[in-house]
Every structure is written in C-alpha cells, then in structure tokens.
Amino acid sequence: MHVSRFSFRAFARSALFSLLAGSAWSLQAQTTEAPPVHPPLNPPANPSVDPAAATPTKMEDVVVIGRSADLVGTADASSEGSVGYVELASRPFLRRGEILEVIPGVVITQHSGGGKANQYFLRGFNLDHGTDFSISVDGMPVNLRSHAHGQGYADLNFIIPEFVQSVDYTKGPFAAEVGDFSAAGAAEFNLFRKLPQNFVTVEAGEHDYGRLAVGDTSLAPDGSATTVGFEATHDNGPWSLAENLRRYSGMVRHLWTGPNDQEFSVTALGYRAEWNST
What we know:
Blueprint: H1 2-31, E1 80-83, H2 85-89, E2 106-109, E3 119-122, E4 125-126, E5 133-137, E6 140-141, E7 164-171, E8 185-191, E9 199-205, E10 209-219, E11 225-235, E12 245-257, E13 263-274
Parallel strand pairs: 5-8
Antiparallel strand pairs: 1-7, 2-3, 3-4, 5-6, 7-8, 9-10, 10-11, 11-12, 12-13
C-alpha cells in the first residue's frame, strides 16, 4: 500500500506539471504578435490610372546668365567685384543711383525730387548722399568735398545708363587707392569708349513720365571714333504737387590711337535739371 500511494502521488504531480506547462504554452501562443506584413516591392499596376497621365511633363528650358568674369587671383577679397554690361542692360533703371544696386548689399532710395542725389545704404548702414561711399566715373571723382547736404554729396543723375559698360566696386575700408569718402566702400563707373551699337530709346509711363535717349559712335578712316549721346527726361511723380522734373544729359567722347597702339580719349559731360522739390 505504501508503494501504491507513492506511485499515485508521482503520477498526480506529473499530470499537474503537464497541465501547467500546456496552459503556459497556450497563453504564450495567444499573446505573441504576428510579424509585420510588408507591401510587395513591385505592386501591381492600378488599371484605373491612365499610363499617359503618369508620364512626367518636360518644362521649358530656363537660361540663367551669371557673372562670367573670373576674379580669382585678381580680386584681393570676396567683397570686391565687377558687374558687366549684360547684367546692367537687363535691369530697368528709373533713378540713376539704382545702377549701384547691382552691388550686393547696396540699397538706393530717393527723396526731395528726381534731381537730387540718391540716399545710399550699404550693408544696412545709412551713407547719406555719399558721405561714406566713394563714387567715380572713368577716374573722375563724383563726391563733392563740401555741400549743403553734407560732405561727399554724390549726384549720379548726369549718367546716361546706356553708356555704362561696367561697374567695379569694393566694400569695406580696405582699398586705400580710392581715397576719401570710402569708409564703407567705393564704386567706379566705366563708360563705353565706343558703343557696341547705336541706339534710340523712347520710354513713357504714368505720372507724365517720358524719356528719350540717343547714342551714336562714328568711326573715322584713321581709326579714331567719336561717340555722342543725349538724354531728356520728364516726370511729375506721384505727388500732390507735380514734381515737373526736366532733366537733360549729354556726352561727347573722342577716341584715337597714339604711338605704340596707346589709346587716348577726351570726354565732355553736361547735365542740367529743374524740378519742384517734394
């Protein structure tokens, strides 16, 4: 009887262990998450989608013209450079000082009428009418030593934009060769010695704006060239009191070749403006 009891107890323990193990395996099987199902790498084509509609559309070519002048080894710093005629010709200029806006960081404004020098800003600093920005045209200084509006007053209204071949600039007080009024920077306008082509420009706009500009280069048999230009502008501006701006500019340049193929030129510039100050 003792052996039978031991056998019964061993059998009961084995049955209980098997029951618990089976329950744990069944619970684990029920709580285990199924592995994620990934979409096929090549899904079947949707028959409802038109294949022609999925074809990419080819856009028109866009041509961007950049500054092609390579100043590596020529410019002393990245804060100086040159802007050529191609870029200048692609910009509209209502005010003469706006030519300087081709220089990165330069902003031009205007007050008191179209016959007064512009207000210049460079890198966020107010340069007044040119007090801290030196400007020259073919080596001729434009800044006035003294003026009622402050030293360095630089009036660019005498420039005819179509005659500007390039603008060289420097920013910062590092170019000793530009001299006075260059604490913030400097710019030099280079005019055409000979026009690439003769032109007649006629413009008209609102507020009785009108402009006529003419330029011509005549070549002589000896190789010399004479270039003449004239500009007349009228504008009333968007003011209660009509500005009645009348601006006239003229230019004559004679170019000839001397010994050793050296070029010489004599240039005369004229300018007159009358307007009602606003």
